[in-house]
Amino acid sequence: MIDIAYLRKKRDVLEDALRKRGYPLDILDALTELDSKRREVITEANALRAKKNEISRRVGELRRRGEDASHLLEEARKYDRLLAELKEREKEYDRKFWELWAHVPNIPHESVPVGPDESANVVVREWGERREFPFKPKPHWELAELLGILDWKSASEMAGSRFVTYKGLGARLERALINYFLDTHIGNGYTEVFPPILVKPEALYASGHLPKFHEEMYYIHEDDLYLIPTAEVPLANLHRGQVIPEEKLPLYYVAYTPCFRREAGSHGRDVRGIIRMHQFNKVELFKYTRPEDSYEEHERMVRDAERILQALGIPYRVVLLSTGDMGFAAAKTYDIEVWAPGLGRWLEASSVSNVEDFQARRANVKMRRKDGKTEYVHMLNGSGLATPRVFIAILENFQREDGSVVVPEVLRPYMGVDVITYPSRDPRGA
RNA sequence: GGAGAGGUGGCCGAGCGGCCGAAGGCGGUGGCUUGCUAAGCCACUGAGGGGAGGUAAUCCCCUCCGAGGGUUCGAAUCCCUCCCUCUCCGCCA
């Protein structure tokens, strides 16, 4: 949610923002109309309430002196019907206005390239050498099959499609990635959080996932709870309704959670392998910052995510999303895409966004300046990283002709092996 | 799941039908005192919204005491529903 001042005083900025994002502008006229009607009714109702309050005050005075107040009571009752009707209209306009306003996306930052879709995205930098293979690199699902580290049959039988069972060194690799990501970020000053994975609707409203993305999430009707689609949700709710002293900012958090997505509307896309799953693991970075620091912190967050891929030796590129490709809440987003030679394409492993005060307004998170004034904080989120895409990149980039996979150096302490070979066996157990 | 207690401002904590947006304390800000520090003294210090005024200083009004309804001329205070926290019991990883 953005500041209404954009509608009232900076209409040109707002129009420009919607145009850049490819949103229709007609919503603004409706909003302005609703806003002025709403204000009209509020003013009228407030005046009436003031009158009633005044009468009540006088009744109180008379009663205290033991005098008769019946003529005032009669007068007060005269206002009741009028006030009741005004209240209704006030509520109605208010509801309509905020409902519409909640559909207005964030204002893109001036550094964001303008364009209709991903074709206008800009590759900011590329890191690492894309390896030349003397043989045809296999896609990860073939490698996983050869190594026996992913079990599709058991998963589909117990849970359906887009679920997988990691086995042996596959399970170990997954856990190694999670631990390595967490340990690295904690070392960079992020505080580890392990939050609830089921959350109430309010939490999703605050993060901006509701009402728009209900269909994308798993919902438990009996308890009115949702499975989180990303740890961004609980992390954005960590300080809901709070006022944070300026000197405590910035706050850095990192959380590992499983993430659950229904992937409605993506039937038939990425059906092979673990590119797109209903359940996957992700280590999420999150920051609360002062408004003046958020863009610098944004850059640092991207670097924090990149550092992991550098340490793993996975080639990647950083893409600055265009106005047409950015998410609803974001003011600026970088995607980090890893190279998957078996698939022959780049895969998004991370998305790092500065949402400025967009979520802070919804979640009502403010900071207190040294002079006592309060202001909304800025919030940033980014994957650091999503494991499946990194899992894929490791298998496909470090595969050998026989299908075995060399484990990146930094993961070896977590893995206990240098190479994943068939039969995949955990050296410490069966 | 059963029984009880409670949710008040940045925090703690009074108030239980009428100038209560809310005593008191802590914290914060400004000032005074002080050789410095510590202490002390004084003042200020919640949020959201609407309006007037130069999109200023400032002023007026409305709303908010977990959320939503209700009773009443009037509710933080009474009633109902929901949410949350705590204590005890039961159950359980």
List its salient traits:
single chain, 430 residues, alpha+beta, Helix Hairpins, BirA Bifunctional Protein, domain 2, 2 domains, 3-stranded antiparallel beta sheet, elongated, RNA-binding
Task: Describe the protein's architecture and organization.
With 430 residues, this protein is of the alpha+beta class. The protein has two domains: 24-101, Serine-tRNA synthetase, tRNA binding domain (Helix Hairpins, Orthogonal Bundle), CATH 1.10.287; 118-420, BirA Bifunctional Protein, domain 2 (2-Layer Sandwich). It has an eight-stranded mixed sheet with strand order 1-11-12-13-16-10-9-4. It has a three-stranded antiparallel sheet with strand order 5-7-6. A three-stranded mixed sheet has the order 8-14-15, with no helix packed on it. The longest helix has 39 residues, at 26-64. A hairpin with a 4-residue loop joins strand 6 (219-220) and strand 7. The two termini are 53 Å apart. The chain has helices at 5-8, 11-21, 26-64, 70-101, 140-147, 152-158, 169-187, 201-207, 232-236, 294-312, 358-363, 387-397, 412-415; strands at 122-127, 150-151, 165-166, 191-193, 198-199, 219-220, 225-227, 243-245, 251-260, 279-289, 316-320, 332-340, 345-354, 366-368, 374-376, 378-386, 405-406, 419-420. Helix 3 (26-64) runs antiparallel to helix 4 (70-101) and helix 7 packs across helix 12 (387-397). It binds one RNA strand of 93 nucleotides through helix 3, helix 4 and strand 8.
CATH level 1 name of the largest domain = Alpha Beta
**Sequence stretches where pLDDT stays below 50 over 5 or more residues:** none
Counting structural domains, the number is 2
The average pLDDT score comes to 90
Tally of helical segments: 13
The CATH superfamily of the largest domain is known as: Bira Bifunctional Protein, Domain 2
Structural class: alpha+beta
> Could you say what the CATH topology of the largest domain is called?
BirA Bifunctional Protein, domain 2
Strand line-up of the largest beta sheet: 1-11-12-13-16-10-9-4
| Helix content class | 40-55%
For the largest beta-sheet, the strand count, sense and barrel status come to: 8 strands, mixed
Q: State the total count of DSSP E strands.
A: 18
Distance between the termini: 53 Å
